[in-house]
Structure formats: C-alpha cells, structure tokens
Amino acid sequence: MFQVRTDLAVEARELYSEGENREVPGVEVKIEEEKYYTITRVKILDKIGEKNMGKPTGTYITIEVPNLKNPNEDLKDEISIQLAKEIKAIAKNTKKTKTLIVGLGNWNVTPDALGPKVVKRVLVTRHFFVSYKKEDDEEMANVSALSPGVMGLTGIETGEIIKGVVEKTNPDLVIAIDALASRNMNRISTTIQISDTGINPGSGVGNKRQGLNSEYLGVPVISIGIPTVVDAATMVNDTIDLIIDSMMKEAKFGSEFYEMLVELSKEEKYSLIREVLEPFMPNTIVTPKEIDELIDNLSIVIANGLNIALHPGIDLKDVNRYIK
Amino acid sequence: MFQVRTDLAVEARELYSEGENREVPGVEVKIEEEKYYTITRVKILDKIGEKNMGKPTGTYITIEVPNLKNPNEDLKDEISIQLAKEIKAIAKNTKKTKTLIVGLGNWNVTPDALGPKVVKRVLVTRHFFVSYKKEDDEEMANVSALSPGVMGLTGIETGEIIKGVVEKTNPDLVIAIDALASRNMNRISTTIQISDTGINPGSGVGNKRQGLNSEYLGVPVISIGIPTVVDAATMVNDTIDLIIDSMMKEAKFGSEFYEMLVELSKEEKYSLIREVLEPFMPNTIVTPKEIDELIDNLSIVIANGLNIALHPGIDLKDVNRYIK
Amino acid sequence: MFQVRTDLAVEARELYSEGENREVPGVEVKIEEEKYYTITRVKILDKIGEKNMGKPTGTYITIEVPNLKNPNEDLKDEISIQLAKEIKAIAKNTKKTKTLIVGLGNWNVTPDALGPKVVKRVLVTRHFFVSYKKEDDEEMANVSALSPGVMGLTGIETGEIIKGVVEKTNPDLVIAIDALASRNMNRISTTIQISDTGINPGSGVGNKRQGLNSEYLGVPVISIGIPTVVDAATMVNDTIDLIIDSMMKEAKFGSEFYEMLVELSKEEKYSLIREVLEPFMPNTIVTPKEIDELIDNLSIVIANGLNIALHPGIDLKDVNRYIK
Amino acid sequence: MFQVRTDLAVEARELYSEGENREVPGVEVKIEEEKYYTITRVKILDKIGEKNMGKPTGTYITIEVPNLKNPNEDLKDEISIQLAKEIKAIAKNTKKTKTLIVGLGNWNVTPDALGPKVVKRVLVTRHFFVSYKKEDDEEMANVSALSPGVMGLTGIETGEIIKGVVEKTNPDLVIAIDALASRNMNRISTTIQISDTGINPGSGVGNKRQGLNSEYLGVPVISIGIPTVVDAATMVNDTIDLIIDSMMKEAKFGSEFYEMLVELSKEEKYSLIREVLEPFMPNTIVTPKEIDELIDNLSIVIANGLNIALHPGIDLKDVNRYIK
Asked: Does the first or last residue of chain C, that is N or C, have fewer Cβ atoms within 10 Å of its Cβ?
C-alpha cells in the first residue's frame, strides 16, 4: 500500500483512517485529554499493524501541546514533568541504569539541530562514576551524551559512530533525540513523540540509512522526536486539499471536476506533486520563521524531562538548576 | 491592479508580461548574456512604469548566476568583480566618497541574516580617517558599517536607527544589504539585485515599515539584495500552475474544469491560497535546507564586491586578504 | 597621583586606603552584609573624592556575590531581585519612563560580550507603544535596546551611534551594560557595579574614547557592569606582591631586598611590569576558562533584573517567562 | 628532574638547554630557515631523550611563522603548502590511505576550539567511497572526520569515543588536531607542531587522561597542534624573569638579592608561583583578545594543509574551493 511519509504514528493513523470510520487493524489506541495537552498512546501490535502503519511493532506516545509554540515557564515545566513520566514508564530505568543520550541531526541546519541542542543541555555524569569507581548513587544516575553529527559532516554513518561508542562504554539504555518531519504545519514544535522502537531508516529531518534500534545496538533504544519541518510536497498537497474543500463548499465547479478528483487517487496526486516540485526545489524545507527560538525552547523542555526521568535526585523544584 | 508580491524587478516584469508579448509600458530593459551569468538592467522610467511594476522609478540591475548555489572560487571571484563594477557604475563613488554600509535583517533568523553577515565581513575604515583627521587616501576610502537589527529585537524602527547614525556621521552614500523574497525557488541564492531606489516598505524577508531611501535619509541609497526565501503561498500557487500544465498535457480532464480555471482569475487563486494557508501556517518560510552555508558564501561574494567597489587600492588579486 | 586602572569604585577605594587606616576623603561608604552577598555603596561627594578615586562624582553600588560563579537558580533569582531594587532606587523610573538599554562591547570577543548578551535577553516593548500610540501601560513600560558594536566593527565611535539613536527616539533614561576589567581574579563574574555616572572614557574591557554620560546624551545614564577580565600586568603585579608576602614570612631574604622593595614605589613597580609585558603580549586577556558559560549566566541575571526594575507588571514569579 | 609543562618539543629543548651550551642528549635537531618561517625538526631518539624532554620517542616538527598572527592570503597559502609537505612526509600516506581526522578540544571554550573548527572545514569523502563501494580514486582519498568533544560535555573519555569509531570504520591513519599550551606568549597562534607520536596524556589545553597514540588505537597517529593559550603561572614566572633582568641592568639592588635569587632555584620559583596563584585563579587562561579571529584563520590554514596532503587531486590552485 502507498504510504505518505510521516515520522509520527498519530499521523500514520490519521492517514489510514481517513475516510474509514474504524481503528487501524493491528493497532491499539488510547487517548488522554488534559487541560493543556493531549496524550495519544498508539501500540502497533503485530505484522498487520506494521503494514498498515508503515512502522515497526512497539509503543508510540504522543504529547500534543498546542501552546508549546509560545509557552510560559509553567507550561514548559508541566510538559517536562509529563515527558519525564512517559520516559520512565517506557524505559523502566532505575538509578543503576547507565544511559547514553544521542543527539541526532546536523547542528548547522537550524531545524535539524534539536538533538545536538538537547545533548548540550543534559546533565552528564558518567565520568564521575568512572573516576570514583562507583556503581550507583542516591542522587545521580550514570549518564553520557553524544552528538555524532551527520554523514555529510563526518563521512561516517551515524549508526556506526553510536555503535562504536556503545561497544566501548556499555550503556544499558540508549535514548535518541531527533527532529522529525510532520505532514501538518500545526504539529511543528507542538508535538513530542516517545517510542520504544528507536530510530528507523528514513525517519527524521535528514536521511539516516542505518536504523538506531535495539536490534542493531544490542540495548533498548528509546527515541524522542519533535516535528520541526513540513515536507514541501506535503504542504502543497494539503493546501490543494484545503482549496478543493473550499471550492466544493462554494460550488465553484460541476460534476466533471469532481469526477476527475475522485478518479485521481490520493497516491497519484502526491506523486504528481513530488514530480512537479522535485526538479525546481530539491532539499527544500518549510519551517516557521522563528524556528531558532522554538528549537531553543524545546531543547530545554526535553533536557529537563530527561534530567528528571534519569536522575533519582532531580525533581521539578530544582530541575532548572541543572539545565545548561 | 493586483500585484503578487515580489522584491525583484525581473519578477515584477515577468508577472506583467505573462501572456502579453510586449515590454512593460514605462519600463526599459536591456539583457546581457555572459557565460556563467545574465545581467538584466531594468529601468522604471515614469509613473506608468511605477504602477505597472509596483516599484519606484529607478534602475534595477539583476545578476543571475545559476551556479552560485554551488560555486567554485573562480566563479565567486568573477561575480564579486562584476558586482563591484555595477556598484561603481550606479553609485558613482570616488575615493573621497564616505560610505555607510547597512546590513538589514535579523541575525537570529538564518535566511534573514545576509545583511548582518556582509557587514561582519566588509572592511571598515572610517575610524582611521577620524583618528588621523584625513579626508582621503590613495588606498582606502572612508567606510563605516552597521547592522541595526530588526524591530522585534530593538523596539526601534530600523530606519530611525539608520537616520540617527547618518545624521551623526554624515556619509555621502548609504548601501543597504537585504535578504529578499522571490516567487521562484530557482532564484534563491542565485540572483543579486542592485538598485538605486533604496529599500522600500514591505520588501525584504522581514517587514520594514519605513523606507530606507534618499528621500528619508537625505543621501543616495543603493540597495543590494539576494532572494533567500520563497513565500509559502507563492510556492503553492506556482506548484498548482505546474500541476495544471502537467494535467492539461495528459488531457486528464475535460472542458468544464478548464473553464473553471479560466473563470478563476490569477488574483482569486492567489488570494484563495493565502486565505487557506494563513490560519495554519503564519510566518512560514520555504528555504533550501543548506541555507546556512549558502548565506555564508553569498556574504563573502557581496563583501568582496563592496571592498573592490569602494576602496581604490583593493583589486581582485588581493581582495581575499581583506575579507573577514 | 598615580592611579592603577580599575573600573570598580570598590577597588579604587581599596587602592587608596591600602596602608592608610581611614576612609578616602571626599567619599562616603556604607556596607550592608547579607547571607550570600555584600552591598557596598560608595558616594563620591566632591572634587576631592573625584581626584582620590579617579572617577566622577556620583553613586557606585557594588553587589559582591562570591557564589555567582557557580550559582543555583535561587541565588540567581535573589540577585536579579536585589539588582532590580538597586536599579529602581538609582534610576527613579516610573511606568511612564522610556528606557533605552545599551549593550556595550564586542560580541565576537567572549569576555566583552556581556552587554550584547543582555540586550539579546531583555524584553523590548517600544514598538508596541509606537504602534498603538500609547503613552503608558499598567503592565509594561516603554523599553528599547541596542548593541552598537565597537569601533573596530563599525568604524563609528559607539557614543555617536547611541547619541544618534537617542536623538531620534527620545528616551528618558539610558541604561548601559558593559564588561569591566578588575584588579582581582576573585571579582571576575561575582561583582555587579551599578552607577549613576554612566560610562566614562577608558573604562570597560575595550576602549571607548567618548563617555556615555548624561552630559553627552542629555538624559540620565545608569551603568551596570561586571568584571570579566583581569589586566595581565595587574595579575603579574598582584602575584609578585603575594610572592613577596610569602617570602617575607619565610624570611628567605634580608634587609637589603626589603629596602629595595620599599624604595621601589607601587607606581614604579606597576610601570615596570607594563613596560616589560607590553612588547611581547599586547592585547592579552586573563580570564576564566569557562568564561562563555559565566557570561551566559550573568546576562540572564542582569536581564531579569532589568525586566523586573523597568516593567511594573513583571515580578519574580514570572520573570523567567520573559527572558529570551 | 623537574619539568615545566609545555606541549612543544622546541620549548622542552629550550628549557633543557637553558644555561647549558649543548644539544639535549638523546635528541637530534635540524633547523631550516625560510624567509617567513623557521622549521625545527626535533627527533627524540631513545629513553635518554625521552627523559630529558619529557616526551615520547619520535619526530616533532615545528613550523614557526611570526606573521601568522596577522597573515595575508599568500602567507596562509604558503604555510598550508608547507604543512601539507610535512604531513605527507611524516604520514607516508598514499591515495589508498583511509584517514580519520580527529578534532580534539571543547568547542565552547574559544581557545580550545581549534580542533573542532578544523574538522568543520576539512573535506570528508568516506561516505562516497562506501556508497559507491570504491577502494580508491584518482582525485580524492577516503577521509572521515570527527570532533568527539571533551569529557565534561559527553561524560566519556575522548579516547574511548575515538577507539570505538576506529574499530567500526578501520582507518589506516588517524590525524589528531589539538590546541596547545605554550610557555611563551609569542608562540600563540604562530607555531605549528606536527608529530608522529600522537597525543599523550596531559597535553593540550584541556586535560586528556588517555593518550591517543598508535599503541592505543592500533594505527599510526599524527598530531598537529598550535599553541593558543599560555599558562598563567608560566606567564607570571616569565615576567618576573624579565623584571629581574631589567633590574639587574639598572643595578637597582645589591649582592644579597642576587644571592637570594641564585639560591631560589627555577623549580622552586615556579612552584611558589603556582602555589600562590592556584587558590585565587584556578582554570585561568591567558590568551590574546582577538583569539576568536586567530582560531578561525588557523583552522583554515590547517584544513587547507590537510586537504592538500590527503587528496591526490587537490593542489594549491584549487585548495580554497574545498574549504568550508
């Protein structure tokens, strides 16, 4: 089946269900509504779910926070705490867990720099455990962090760098942070996805050919992602749909055009747009003007969430003391 | 008449001429083809030209360099020299001319940072002239440079800062560098526009309400601009046109749809797109992924062009010695 | 009288009083000890005080916070509030006061970038007052902010840029932020000086020839400064003194050497060091390794202090909501 | 024997030879004087040489270029070419050699950022060889590059990251770039040291505990270093020596002081200074004010040198085309 590309399980689900009034087969969904945010828990249960969603079996938790685009400090703190809860629940980490945080993406490309910015801000402690030959501590857990860059900067597949470091440092858990592509401008910088399936080829803003998952790295891999760009073809596609909706309401055209559209399937339309756009705008990104500031804010929310989730002695009261 | 917004005179001309096989009334155009670039000299002659083009009377020179997206050093040097020639011709500066270079735009927003990056790289000398109480010099001209920021950063209209500085330092000439919006993804970072009309309200990537022109500042104002973003609505609009072209060729629809499109005028279509896009993507920019690197390259080309144009003692051979 | 250069009134006082057990004539001093900081209020009362201190008549308030080098969030908040109180007391601003914040220094030189970093972080509002044609507001005051750069970057004397902008925008108050030089490594990034005398020639990390004071700008000028570097000659000088102290205690030498040192006056020693150092290390700075991080922290403390002091509707509870 | 710490073999040699008019035993030295630079080739031949120099057996080439502080383009090109020659001679690389370039140091601390800045600028190609499954090429060699950060940023010993990546990617050669500490302000940013001994514990601006050498990594390791800071204690020490020289010439003191100084050995003096300085200025660096600009320039010189040395198809004419 044709799959419009999206990194978000909630969007894969929307795409499937469009026009079909039932849940995706092989997928379980729970939705929790809070005052300022909505949590959607998508479980892909089996091969049928994998096929329908275009994503591997596992859990995908989405926290959607419309005001995260322009948050006040209280909201940022609330989301960090909620994120910490979800990370803990999915990672099942204890104070003995050794975690390697990996910031994926290219720090020179603003909307791709989310991962490296989070890595810059989390509290790293592994070197103290090594120096003092400690196994665990009441306050802090053993955390290391790395931004491996992208292949264009290093000449090395990102996965190879991570695997090399994992083999040398033997963490129990890898948490990978990545900027995602969304189908919908409204999700840019407002949606956080946490998953226990790691990072899989073709996801993220850039191109990663080797997956970063437990199969490859040999330890559990949690991924945390936030959409920061919309694909140009997607944007045009969605706009055309909106225009057609708008035109239909105004009855600006008759039956022939309607039939043409029905005839032209969703896949054909998207392919046509890609084909038309590609030659004159390869590597184009669609992103909010203030993306630099948004990424800075989001990296603080995620880094705080990670600090609370990983270190037993850090809670909301003092989480901001540890942010860099 | 309805005007699709563009900062480039060559695009305003294309928009006017579309479907009409004649030159824009009130406008004079000369085109010069070189191996690696094309120079278009547009002169808006009178009120009729102003109305047709949506731009004030004056000269607009465009250097289009398709390979400027991925230039080698020789091409960059060649374009710097050509740019220097055009600046000299339009500015009529001598070694006695005191020039203030103004870098417009927001240094925190990558595609808007062209002006500030150029200012960072040009050779400034005014302080030596002041210190040694010299009026002129065989090697260097009196040059100062300023990046005033944008209103969201300072709370002050950019024009007011420039005017305050002009009144204190009395330059003979102001050259303003700005990032522009284009209608066409192909022009991003490949087209340089030089004009003697200064910067006028509503142009550039950000919004400037006060024009920076000779009327306001009291001295001649040359503007140099390079498109770095495409407006999202424009991109959708152009893509739809391409799709329709493509569909028509394949005869995928009949006469009714064609009639609908003919009925739906260009203005209506663009307005419809803006209306549909606005609520869900305000402040969206469409830009190449590698815009950071492109802006760096372009700022060197422009800064070199300015250094050669302004200082009598700098020529191609040593221009790279003065770049910062 | 010979004056060892220092930007801090507390250090000028120490230098004067050294060896003399009495207050500096023409100067009034009050000291307030708090748990985490000490406030010293120095008033230079008259010409005699000016001569003895090498600084103009006026008030110099110093907040010394030894832990500001490695602060937790509570301490940063506490110091921001205290700073806000001092600014309010010295500036006598109301909600109608229009303030221009000026960030002095070179953003390319890390220890000189304090002023520009503060400007980047304060809340600017003037453009809203202009747009809505408001004179005042219950929540916000009219604040603009500018980092004019340094002469080597612009070719323009910093004072000229500020004066030009003051004449165009007519603020009631200018607050200038600057990085200072201290005599003492311990004061680096732990001491904040607030003064109503503005910035005077020769102070700060770089060289400013034109003072930024009420006489020149025509409105009151408050300066806020934090030492970020120690002069190399000063450091050598102080180290030699420490060595001599240490040697004397250990009686490593006899009367002749002691006599030589007594003979060699303080001025002669310092001049000798400068003379010896100058040829082989012009423009050398002595600064902590982690100065980048220190400056970031300090700029938040000052920007928060300014936001609380200037805007009637911002208090501690929500100050962090406005920091950028 | 007491060793004042220096990363430069030429300085270790000076320290040894001071007062002794003969070459260091176990060390061979050749000096080559050119118009704009001097090359010193130090070979530590055996255990005796190691002990006397405080450095492992191997070759240490130093290119001293006094004008590199303020270079024109011709000088930069000349030094890049000379550097390329030395790298080739010491690395014995061919077009088949797979090289991993490692940029050591902390990118957040300006004078420690040399390595990461070089890595940012070199041409990386390994991913093309992997994609096209090529073993070699007439124009390009297989080059990858990585900046591993420092332990305070990652929690991981730098050597472990490099070793992990070496094991995954199997280069034939590692070239490590590092910022060094010098004893002498004049050497800051004017001296390039190339060595075949790799990086050894305790060298560089930061602290690296694990050496990066062929023994640890299993492949030859070339190191390239440039001094960017002077140790504060060293600076004071050297200044005191200069002062004493100056005083002696002016006969400002008699025999007793002279005797005291003779009695106080070099080691004692340096230890005394360290002791006195430590409590009030830990982690202090002494560096030129314009260090940001110097590091930028130097990183271009080194990256150009590496590009010429490693890729068969890059020569002086087009080296600037490949710099980023």
From this structure: N
Q: Which of A109, A254, A286 lies nearest to residue B256, judging by beta carbons?
A: A254
The range of the structural domain enclosing residue B315 comes to: 9-234+284-322
How many other CB atoms are found less than 10 A from the CB of residue B34?
11
Q: Residue-wise over D14-37: b if at least 16 C-beta within 10 A, else e?
A: ebbeeeeeeebebbeeeeeeeeeb
State how many domains chain B has.
Answer: 1
- Which residues in chain D have their CB less than 8 angstroms from residue C112's CB? 289
pLDDT tens per residue, range A137-167 = 988 999 999 999 999 899 999 999 999 999 9
Angstrom distance (rounded) from CA A194 to CA A83: 8
End-to-end CA distance of chain A: 45
Task: Indicate the DSSP class of residue B90.
Answer: H
CB A188 within 8 Å of CB A182: yes
Asked if residue B309 belongs to a domain, the reply is yes
Give me the residue label for tokens 């990183």: D299
Q: With beta carbons less than 8 A apart as the criterion, state whether D164 and D211 touch.
A: no
Strand B58-64 versus strand B191-195 pairing type: antiparallel
End-to-end alpha carbon distance in chain D: 45
Residues of A with CB under 8 A from a CB of D: 120, 124-127, 130, 142-147, 149, 151-157, 160-161, 163-169
User: Which residue in this structure is represented by tokens 């309200």?
Assistant: B201
- Does the ipTM surpass 0.90? no
For helices A232-249 and A266-277, angle between their N-to-C axes, nearest 10 degrees = 130
* CATH (domain of D85): 3.40.50.1450
- Give A321 to chain C, closest Cα distance, Å: 5
Q: Nearest CA to CA, how far is B78 from chain D (Å)? A: 14
Confidence band of B1 (pLDDT split at 50, 70, 90): very low
Are B191 and B182 in contact, with CB atoms under 8 Å apart?
Answer: yes
H or E segment and range at residue D207? none
Is the Cβ–Cβ distance between D322 and B72 less than 8 Å?
Answer: no
Which residue type does B156 have? I
> pLDDT by residue (tens digit) across B73-119?
789 999 999 999 999 999 999 999 999 999 999 998 889 999 999 99
Identify the band that residue C3 occupies on the pLDDT scale cut at 50, 70 and 90. very low
The token duo for A259 is 């039939």
pTM: 0.85
| C-alpha distances in Å from residue D256, one per residue of A37, A44, D252 | 81, 88, 12
Helix (H), strand (E) at residue C13 = helix C9-17
D174 chain-A contacts, CB cut-off 8 A: none
D2 CB-side CA count, 13 A: 8
pLDDT at A1: 29
DSSP 8-state class, residue C23: P
Does the structure show a pLDDT above 90 at C13? no
If pLDDT is split at 50, 70 and 90, which confidence band does D3 have? very low
- Nearest 5°: the CA angle D169, D171, D173 is 155
Neighbours of chain B (3+ CB pairs under 8 A): A, C, D
Share of chain D above pLDDT 90, in %: 54
Domain presence at residue B241: no
The minimum CA-CA distance between D181 and chain B, rounded to whole Å, is 26
For residue B260, give the nearest of A252, A288, A292 by CB distance. Answer: A252
Question: Residue B160: which of C142, C149, C169 has the nearest Cβ?
Answer: C169
**Tokens for D317?**
């004419």
Q: Which chain B residue has the Cα nearest residue A242? A: B276
Asked if the structure places residue D248 within a domain, the reply is no
- 3-class SS shares of chain A: helix, strand, coil, % to 5: 45, 20, 35
Distance between first and last Cα of chain C: 45
Q: Is residue A43 part of a domain?
A: yes
State the nearest Cα–Cα gap between C72 and chain A, in angstroms: 5
